[in-house]
Design goal:
With 143 residues, this protein is mainly alpha-helical. The N and C termini lie far apart (36 Å). Strand 1 and strand 2 form a beta hairpin. Helix content is 52%, strand content 6%. Strands 1-2 form a two-stranded antiparallel sheet. Helix 1 crosses helix 6 and helix 4 crosses helix 5. It is elongated, with a radius of gyration of 18 Å.
Length: 143
């Protein structure tokens, strides 16, 4: 599994919104400038995040974007599944049911199922607020 640029930029965009949530709705151009990401690229990510009910949109004067829920209620797993789809490490685990004629006799299936479980549990355990706190804590580290 490799996380695409879309998934990585969505995380950065949402972290930016989380860090500036007290500022109301944030213009996409401001996020793009702070994150050094093309505004056009972010415009492609916004509809995906809107459909997943991760973003709130306000059009018009003083319009922009904000998080649909608080940063402590939004996980990396929520965001990456919205942008990447299924996070399964192998194709046979992409759907709800295993669609492989070899699944009953596959000696590697338990390995892939375990990895899939670890990936999803980890990503679902890390919130945007956790990432902000980790970053802040890293800046405060002194020897």
């Amino acid at each position: 599994m490799k996380i695409s640029t879309k998934g990585r930029y969505a995380l950065r965009m949402l972290l930016d919104l989380a860090e500036h949530q007290g500022d109301g709705y944030i213009a996409l151009k401001d996020i793009a400038q702070r994150q050094e990401i093309s505004k056009k690229y972010l415009e492609q990510i916004v509809p995906i995040l809107n459909r997943a009910e991760i973003l709130k949109t306000n059009r018009g004067f003083q319009g922009g974007y904000r998080l649909a829920r608080s940063p402590d209620k939004m996980t990396a797993g929520d965001i990456l599944r919205a942008t990447e789809g299924n996070l399964a490490p192998v194709a046979c685990l992409d759907g709800d049911e295993i669609d492989c004629p070899r699944s009953e006799h596959c000696p590697t299936l338990p390995l892939w199922q375990g990895l899939n479980k670890v990936i999803n549990e980890y990503l679902d355990s890390v919130t945007l607020q956790d990432l902000i706190d980790m970053h802040i804590g890293a800046d405060d580290y002194v020897i």
